[in-house]
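the four lines:
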Amino acid sequence: MDAVTTFFEMGGYARFVWPAYGLVSVVALGLLVMSLRGLRCRQKELAALQERLPGRRGRVWE
Amino acid sequence: MLGLSTPSGFIKVSKLVSPWLWTACVLLIGAGLYFALFVSPADYQQGQTVRIMYIHVPSAWLGMFGYSVMALASAAGLVWKNPLADLVAKASAPIGASFTFLCLATGSLWGKPMWGTWWAWDARLTSMLILLFLYFGYIALQNAFDDPGRGARAAAILALAGFVNVPVIKFSVDWWKTLHQPASLMKMSGPALHPSMLTPLLLMVSGFTCFFVAVLIVRVRTEILAAKIRALRLSEIHAAQGSGVAG
Amino acid sequence: MKVARDARAIACGLNRTGFVAFPPTSAFRECFPLAGAVVLLWCRAMTKGIPPSSFAGEKLVCIRGERVVFTQLDFRLTNGEALLLLGPNGSGKSSLLRVMAGLLKPADGHLAWNGAPVTDDREGHSARIHYVGHHDAIKPVLSVLENLRFWARLHDPRTGDRTAVTALERMGLERLAEVPGKMLSAGQKRRLNLARLLAAPAPVWLLDEPSVALDRASVKVLEAVIAEHRAGGGMVALSTHADVDLSGARELHLDHFAAAPGVVTGIWA
Amino acid sequence: MKRLIEIIRRDLRLALRQGSDSVMVVTFFVLTVILFPFGIGPEANILERVSPGVLWVTALLASMLSLDRLFQADYEDGSLELLALTPTALEILVIGKVAAHWLTTGLPLMIAAPVLAVLLHMNGDGFVALLVTMLLGTPTLSLIGAMGAALVLGARRGGVLLSLLVLPLYIPVLIFGVGAIDSAVQGLDYSAQLLLLGGILLAALPLAPLAAAAALRQALE
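prediction for all of em together
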């Protein structure tokens, strides 16, 4: 059991190592989620716009 | 390469490449984390805090890699008037800026136990701080214009001017650093890296780079669709005018 | 002696417009003034110092802010001709003039001066044109003469003050020569801007609604000046809503060249 | 070449008649430098230690004050279009405007700097270094600043944006300028720093007008 706790203590530097890893993952995942959300809403917007302008369906990009 | 230079070409290629990139990214970072946290030994001086290096160095690398991608894309946008290159430059700026910020944050988290302060005017950290401001300048200039094309071209010139200045800034900061304080106590990445430390570092760097390219592709596709939406809206207004005046 | 001096003046005139029949070496001009004079008198008889030339644009496409303003537009101007740009607002009259002046790069198509593409020699093209836009580039603190002399010298550093003063007289501003720019009315400012056309001669005039803010008498002066310029072999491209009567001017309706409304426009087309 | 002188003469005449630029810049410089003793305290040794840095940073900020109006006035009244249409390279006209800007801001700052150095108890042999570094540094500041001013032309909130764009690029000039004065004060040889400052100036001389002219052409489209 203590192997796990020693691992998480990081030789007493847990206060620095885990926040560092935590921060990197939060920012990276946040970046990813924001980018994907941006893509989703653009795709919905585009689909809605193309419904309204049937004449312009020429080249469908999504 | 030609397939990539047109928007529809880019979207086709990106659809093919994305899944591979994401799997490569997950595998590399997974293996990297495993090696970094469990296998590689603690540093005799720094103890366990050396593990922060495995995310600090890749972040620094992505910060600089992002800026070079931005500068190259801007050059392509300016020289060959390729609108897709402008979009790649615009998409890579926020990613590069976030990783430059992460590099500074992990740097100070690593510096605290070693130097006792959250911020040390170490030459590398200071250069990354300046790079972060170059990113902010680029992003602010990009969005400071109503016409996106105008913003993209102005920001492209700034990216090139900044790219030319980065080595001068790096040199002047190193020179300034050595003037005020002999070589810092703790060389950030330590002496020649022991292989057991090198493999996780390489895994993490390549994993981060895959992540960068994958997110870049997502953002570029978003920019392409945004441009398409703008074009459709304009043609909608144009059509309303057009039908009004039988040309 | 008057003939030799005259020859030199015309040689300078010719030299400026880039078609010097004379090798520019001053030594040659010094020792053969008489022969030079004979040749140039013949040129002078032809046209008042502006040699035959043509200014044309083929299949011009202009995109402003991701909107296609006009496509496949052709135009052609030769000595003495005038081109009247007509069309509703936003049909691209100003854009076309800016493309002709070289301020705005066309998305497609090219401009040619005597067949040679204009982009090869941007400075030469700038020396050949005068562009009058919506704004009158007048500094409020500089006097009328200082403003005019600055632009004349910038266009051609060799012009003396005499041409600036005669230009002012021609536009009826000689009494205001020392008045600072901020005291001028809109009409006077516009006339000062137009005086720039006369202060430093150039074959092609690109005028964007020049008659705005001008009173009846000034419009007459403008028409006379344009007629004189055309008689001297110059070319004029003019966009206007007021009825500036240009005898024998060809009309160019820009809405004939508008992009079809349905087409998806912008850089992705 | 005549056109270059023509532009410089016109801009100087405008600056003299409007009279605001150089006076405002120098007063800002003097006032900011005077503020520092109130912040840091009047002890001579501290002031002497920070005087090169204080003088250089405030000079840098002061020269940035009048930058965003460098092209703005011409842009609004249509002169910029005509300048772009003169039969000579736009880069030469940009150099003319930068020279005029330097004469109205860089030069007055150089004249005011030694006086303020006395206020900050700067060591005697630091004065020569201060003047030489400002002579080499302020033109570079004007050149890089002109590029920034051209970039933000027509942008929303151009003034604030200009400082964000230009300050990171000023850092090398600041480091070598202050470094030269520091070594001069310690009696060391500071020719290396001067050579580097000169090098940056010679690099900025062709590159900055090139970038500025490209930015201006885009602003006019």
